[in-house]
Design goal:
Elements (H helix, E strand, L loop, with lengths): L4 E2 L9 E3 L23 H4 L5 H7 L5 E3 L2 H7 L7 E3 L1 H7 L4 E6 L10 H13 L4 E6 L3 H13 L2 E7 H6 L1 H9 L3 E5 L5 H9 L7 H13 L4 E3 L6 H21 L5 E5 L4 H15 L5 E7 L4 H4 L1 E6 L8 E6 L21 H8 L3 E6 L1 H15 L5 H20 L4 E6 L7 H8 L10 H8 L9
Parallel strand pairs: 5-15, 6-7, 6-9, 7-8, 10-11, 10-15, 11-14
Antiparallel strand pairs: 1-4, 2-3, 4-5, 12-13
Helix pairs in contact: 2-11, 3-5, 4-15, 5-6, 6-8, 9-10, 11-12, 15-16
Length: about 450
């Protein structure tokens, strides 16, 4: 019998998060104060984030110790398994070896709790009583709801309206863990009311939901804001995935040649691949592929510019690949991949030529999700299915070229709360949407013009 799973014990859970910032050859462009357009300082962020997370956002240290209290919570689901996808390899007839790290074993069913519990912990230590956040597909909202229930915090989630309607059971999960969930845009905030006044039928976007959550946090005492992707400290917490993966590849006696992940804001892919960037910088031949939908093609069609992280222009300006902060994508089923921008850190790695982007339509993505489910048994989340699409393409290339490369990807979550998307696919009701170039140019024309940094 073949060994399919590479398992680690609880003693193997990494004791630190890996921070790549001090090892970058060129530093990240600083985030800017939206009013002064000057680099922000810690005090600018203190209104909505605890100082511990602000320090992690800008830390010069390569290793950040994980507190013991967090190790106890992590041990509920970490270490997560790595699988050799023998059945998928056979189905594709490829000489490639395919491995996937499976983050769907966490209680909320995705990678998101890796940072959710950390953020809830540091906010609790700072005396915060309540957190606000946004969520697209619902993975982040359910993860933060889970984390807040563990640490005794109130939680309010602004859920992008199209996902609120498409994914009712994600909403149910959040409510079971005690959170208040509203569809965004909502009438609970000034930002939401403005959007609804312009477009009463708005399906919402992550940019709009972020505006609502940030406004809520800034206008309520004892409340902070929590973000599930994009920022440095979020990717930092997620590096526990890549650090475990490195140990598992050592156990398997192989090194990955291609590392793939779906990418919306960048948390799951960044956490998986960042610990391997050091190896590439040391001369190892590794390709990094970040996969996105053609409906929201940030890396593949966006521009590397300073932009706001939200629609209402409340957040700091960040230099990232962006489609424009008032970009509203189509209501595709991969709700977690509908953000207008990308992590500044991952954007920097794309700009430096370390990471490459790829974009696919949702129908072929679901074709390959079903192929994977039939071969490996797990029904993947629509977001993670984008990574699977790229894996299949790479495996076919290896077959054509006769190469036995090692292809690795992060299966960032299961799709058992996304079956409405599979219903639509099976009924041939999914549309392949490619965001028009003129719409992208129009949104980018409204970006602030910042020449320096």
């Amino acid at each position: 019998m073949k060994d399919r799973k590479i398992l680690l014990g609880e003693k193997d859970i990494p004791r630190y998060w890996y921070n790549i910032l001090p090892e970058l050859k060129t530093p990240l462009a600083p985030p800017l104060n939206p009013k002064t357009q000057k680099p922000i300082n810690p005090e600018d962020l203190a209104a909505i984030f605890p100082m511990a997370l602000i320090e992690q956002e800008m830390s010069p240290k390569s290793e950040i110790p994980i507190p013991e209290e967090l190790m106890d919570v992590y041990s509920l689901w970490r270490p997560t398994p790595m699988f050799r996808a023998y059945n998928l390899e056979k189905a594709l007839g490829t000489p490639a070896k395919i491995y996937y790290k499976y983050e769907g074993v966490s209680p909320p069913g995705s990678h998101k709790p890796n940072t959710a519990v950390a953020q809830a912990y540091y906010n609790k230590k700072a005396g915060v009583k309540r957190l606000t956040t946004e969520t697209g597909a619902g993975q982040w909202g359910s993860a933060l709801s889970f984390a807040c229930s563990f640490f005794g915090l109130e939680c309010k989630v602004y859920m992008v309206k199209v996902s609120y309607q498409q994914k009712p059971y994600r909403r149910s999960m959040m409510q079971v863990w005690g959170s208040t969930v509203v569809p965004s845009p909502s009438r609970d905030t000034e930002a939401g009311r403005r959007i609804l006044a312009k477009d009463p039928e708005s399906l919402g976007s992550l940019g709009i939901a972020i505006s609502e959550a940030v406004e809520d946090a800034a206008t309520h005492e004892g409340t902070n804001y929590s973000l599930g992707s994009v920022l440095n400290h979020v990717l930092l917490h997620q590096t526990i995935v890549g650090l475990e993966s490195k140990k598992q590849f050592e156990e398997a006696g192989v090194k990955p040649n291609v590392i793939i992940g779906c990418c919306g804001g960048g948390s799951n892919y960044g956490g998986f691949m960042i610990p391997f960037v050091r190896d590439k910088m040391a001369g190892e031949d590794i390709r990094f592929v970040a996969v996105e939908p053609t409906a929201c093609p940030t890396f593949t069609k966006g521009e590397f510019r300073y932009d706001f992280g939200d629609t209402a222009e409340l957040t700091p300006l960040m230099k990232m690949y962006t489609l424009g902060h008032d970009f509203v994508p189509a209501g595709i089923h991969a709700g977690g991949l509908r953000y207008h921008g990308d992590s500044p850190l991952l954007s920097h790695l794309v700009k430096e030529g370390i990471v490459e982007g790829a974009a696919y339509h949702q129908n072929p993505v679901f074709d390959n999700a079903v192929l994977f489910a039939k071969a490996e048994g797990i029904i993947p989340a629509p977001e993670a299915a984008h990574a699977i699409m790229a894996v299949v393409e790479e495996a076919k290339r290896c077959k054509e070229e006769g190469k036995e490369e090692v292809i690795a990807f992060n299966l960032s979550g299961h799709g058992y709360f996304d079956l409405a998307a599979y219903d639509a696919y099976l009924a041939n009701k999914l549309e392949d949407y490619e965001h028009p170039e003129e719409k992208i140019r129009e949104a980018l024309s409204r970006l602030p013009l910042i020449e320096s940094y």
